[in-house]
Amino acid sequence: MLDCNKFGWKANDAAETIKGNMFSFGCILFFIITNGRHPFGDDPYSREYNIEHNNMVNENILINFLEALDLISRLLSVNPLNRPTAIDVLNHPFMWKSEKKKDLIYDAGDLEKNHPLLSQALESISVEEIIATDHQKVIDPTTTWDQFIDEAIISHMTHFSQYDFTSVRSFIRFIRNLCIHYKQCPKYIKDLIGVRNRNDLYDNYFTIIFPKLFMKEGINPA
C-alpha cells in the first residue's frame, strides 16, 4: 500500500490541505495508469528534488494518453491554486465514458445551427489545436482534418454529404454522421475503423487521431 505521507508523494506546499491532497492524488493516478511508475522519477531519492524543481521526468510515458496527461499535469501544478478540485477531476474528459463523449458530439453537432455562440466557439478552434501537441511535430497551418482519416472512409462519407475539411465544426458533424450511420456502413469501412460498435468510435478511433478533441473549450462544456 502506498504511504503518501512519505517523501516523493507530497507537494512542496504540502501542508495537509485539499490542494496538497490533489497533488498526491495526481501522483497516485499516474502510478495506477502506468502500472507502478512515478511522475517525478522511479528513484525515490531523486523525487523530492524533481518535485521541488517541477521536473516531471516520466511525463513522456503518457504521450499517447493525452487526456490522462492533461489531467495529471493539472493535478501536479506547482501552483496549488491551479490544481483542480475533486469536481473538476470528475468533469475532466479523461473520466468520461464513451457514451458521454458520444452525447456531447451529438449535442455540439445538432445545436450549432440553432445556437450561434456555440457555432462561433466551434469555428474558432483550429484543426492544429486538436491534433498537435507540445510533444509532436508542428503541423502546417494549412493542415486539414481529412488528411488523418483513411481516404476510403472520407470517400464513403462524402458520398452522402459534403464537409469543410478546414472546419472543426464540420468535423464534429462528420463524426456524428458516421456514428449515426455506422450500422449501415459496409464491412470494409468497419474493418478500416477497427471498432466493434459506434460507441467505440470515440475512444478507440477519433480520440487517438485527434487526442485533444474533447479538451477544447466549445466542445467540452465542463
TrEMBL record:
Keywords: ATP-binding, Nucleotide-binding, Signal
Disulfide bond is among the record's keywords: no
Domain KEN: 98-222
Pfam families in UniProt: Ribonuc_2-5A
GO terms classed as biological process: IRE1-mediated unfolded protein response; mRNA processing
Matching SUPFAM superfamilies: Protein kinase-like (PK-like)
PROSITE patterns: KEN, PROTEIN_KINASE_DOM
InterPro entries: IRE1/2-like (IPR045133), KEN_dom (IPR010513), KEN_sf (IPR038357), Kinase-like_dom_sf (IPR011009), Prot_kinase_dom (IPR000719)
Designated name of the protein: Uncharacterized protein
Biological source species: Cannabis sativa (Hemp)
